[in-house]
């Protein structure tokens, strides 16, 4: 009986056998775990970033709140920055820092650094660099309660800035498009409810007014989830998705950004003449 001839495996294929089904399954599982861990890590970082964003918005609102005590503000919320198109508060009217509990032993000679001392998530020292960050927030010193009122306020702002006019305690609004449907925009103030009710009797309660009126709006685009933090006259910080309800409505945010862009263009044209 003939002995079967042994066929030698070609050198070109030696060591190139595929993984066994068990090893292949294990590799797929490990890859899935790695991907899940990566996305969990990213989500954790985003949650942390959003939490820090809410804390930042709270801090800015407290700086505004402290400014109401200053004699030169006379209890009113500070006006907009004097530079046309900068829709933030006039930082010469708001201290860049304040103390909640302990005295602060360092110099604060510029507006670039805000140092807050107090209990924030069990941290007694809280330091923000370049604070508040330029362009991060929109600010409204006059009370508006819905998108239509807010858009009318921006139109008044534009006209006054273009003409070099001053901003008074009340601004004349288009008929019925002022604060709570009045004919005026009322600058935010501790006694604002009484002043509005002198013009219109059937307005909501003071408590409701403080909930309805937003003064600080974080510009959308900072977080993976579209949205930002807003603060009302109760000084309550709240997350809102974008686009969403006022003041995070697409129409209003677009109007704010368009106004900024228009004044930047005007400034560049003025520099070129």
Structural description of this entry:
By secondary structure, this protein is of the alpha+beta class. It folds into two domains: 192 residues, no CATH class; 33 residues, no CATH class. It contains five helices and nine strands. The strands form three sheets. The protein has a four-stranded antiparallel beta sheet with strand order 4-7-8-9. Strands 1-2-3 form a three-stranded mixed beta sheet, covered by helices on one side. A two-stranded antiparallel ribbon has the order 5-6. Helix 2 packs parallel to helix 5.
Short description:
The chain has 5 helices and 9 strands. It has 273 residues and is of the alpha+beta class.
Low-confidence stretches: 37-42, 99-129
- Our count of domains comes out at 2
- State the share of residues found in helices, binned by percent: 25-40%
Distance between the termini: 107 Å
From the alpha-carbon coordinates, what is the Rg to the nearest angstrom? 29 Å
What does the main sheet amount to? 4 strands, antiparallel
List the defining traits of the structure above.
273 residues; three-stranded mixed β-sheet; 37% helix; alpha+beta; single chain
Helix/strand layout:
Layout: H1 21-67, E1 98-99, E2 113-120, E3 123-129, E4 137-139, H2 147-163, E5 170-172, E6 184-186, H3 192-199, H4 206-212, E7 214-218, E8 227-232, E9 237-241, H5 250-272
Parallel strand pairs: 1-2
Antiparallel strand pairs: 2-3, 4-7, 5-6, 7-8, 8-9
Helix pairs in contact: 2-5
């Amino acid at each position: 009986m003939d002995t079967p001839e042994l066929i030698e495996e070609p050198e070109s294929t030696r060591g190139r056998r595929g993984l066994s089904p068990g090893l292949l399954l294990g590799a797929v599982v490990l890859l899935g775990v790695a991907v899940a861990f990566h996305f969990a890590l990213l989500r954790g970082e985003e949650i942390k970033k959003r939490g820090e964003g809410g804390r930042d918005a709270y801090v800015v609102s407290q700086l505004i709140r402290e400014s109401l005590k200053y004699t030169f503000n006379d209890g009113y919320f500070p006006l907009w920055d004097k530079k046309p198109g900068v829709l933030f508060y006039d930082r010469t009217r708001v201290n860049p820092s304040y103390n909640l509990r302990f005295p602060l032993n360092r110099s604060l000679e510029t507006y670039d650094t805000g140092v807050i001392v107090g209990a924030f998530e069990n941290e007694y020292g809280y330091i923000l660099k370049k604070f508040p960050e330029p362009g991060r927030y929109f600010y409204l010193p006059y009370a508006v309660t819905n998108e239509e009122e807010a858009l009318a306020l921006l139109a008044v702002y534009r006209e006054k800035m273009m003409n070099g006019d001053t901003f008074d305690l009340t601004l004349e609004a288009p008929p019925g498009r002022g604060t709570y449907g009045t004919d005026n925009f009322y600058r935010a103030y501790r006694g604002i409810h009484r002043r509005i009710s002198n013009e219109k009797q059937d307005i909501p309660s003071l408590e409701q007014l403080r909930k309805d009126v937003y003064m600080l709006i974080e510009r959308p685009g900072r977080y993976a989830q579209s949205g930002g933090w807003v603060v009302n006259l109760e000084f309550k910080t709240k997350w809102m998705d974008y686009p969403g309800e006022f003041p995070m409505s697409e129409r209003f945010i677009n109007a704010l950004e368009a106004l900024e862009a228009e004044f930047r263009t005007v400034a560049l044209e003025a520099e070129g003449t």
